[in-house]
Amino acid sequence: ADVVLPLMATAERDGTITNAERRVQRFRTATAAPAAMMPTWQVCATVAEYATASVSNGRTAVASGWNYAVTSDVTDEIASAQARFAGVTYTSLDLSINSWGRQTNELFYYDGTSYSNSEGLGVQLASVADDNNAPLHTAVVAPVVYEPKGEFTMLMQMPVRAYDGGEWSTDSKLASRQVTAHVVLSVADANRWGIAIGDLVALSSPVGSALVRAQIDAGLAEGQVLMPDVAGAPTNLALGAYTRVSVRRAE
Fold first, then answer.
1. What is the number of helices (H) and of strands (E) in the chain?
2. Which of 23, 142, 185, 245 maximizes the CB count within 10 A of its CB?
3. How far is residue 25's CA from residue 126's CA, in Å, rounded to a whole number?
């Protein structure tokens, strides 16, 4: 790299995070940062301070508005500039009320913490779906017409399987649920190429080829090929969500 920025790690600085519940919460410094390290907002402000841009008549424009002193200044600016974040301040994020934290009767409620939450529940952003005035845009997308090209006359997709043999499937009890690499063909295509279930087939794409076992699915459309993304699958043959391929029975 030409430039290395002295960024603090997340555990070395204060800040906020918005989770999948749309809840904005604070996180706090957990460990001291090495000397000369800076939080992200301070690095951006420093770079902006030295950044210039050419304007008319040979003049230069210098970035302004980056005069932050502490992390909460950044949060305050976001709250003022973005309507959905209105009211989100370090003061509101630090409030601890309602039901989170250690409860009196744990037989009926226990949220996983061994102490009362005194560091703030955060602020949940309003959902756009709850806004009666929010626009709902719909569009009809025309289906893409598949046109075979050259020797690659079939269209391959790579669906994901729950038990794919990856790092989350190492337990021996899941071994019977895992499958080896294979391709799935339609009945029409299998009959055309004389391929039966379990046959070894040569699967080729513009970037290579591989030998895999065949499965047949009566519900699959003619011209379609599925190669589940499981352990050992030749994923290097895929060029994206859709890949033109050829399939032949291996001799």
1. 4, 11
2. 185
3. 14
Best CA proximity match to 144, nearest among 55, 75, 234, 240 = 240
- Strands 23-27, 123-124: pairing is antiparallel
Distance CA 230, CA 216 (A): 17
- Give the per-residue pLDDT at 147: 67
Question: What does 209-235 look like in DSSP terms, one character per residue?
Answer: EEEEEEEEETTSPTTEEE--B-TT--G
Domain ranges of the chain: 10-129, 154-249
- For the domain made up of 154-249, give the CATH fold: Barwin-like endoglucanases (2.40.40)
CA distances to 170, 202, 206, 209 from 239, rounded to whole Å, are: 29, 17, 9, 13
Tens of pLDDT, residues 79-130: 999 988 999 999 998 887 665 555 555 544 445 556 666 778 888 898 887 7
Calpha distance 242→245 (Å, rounded): 9
Q: What is the mean pLDDT of residues 16-26?
A: 90
What is the SS3 assignment for 160? strand
124-160, pLDDT tens digit by residue? Answer: 898 887 778 878 788 887 766 666 667 888 999 999 8
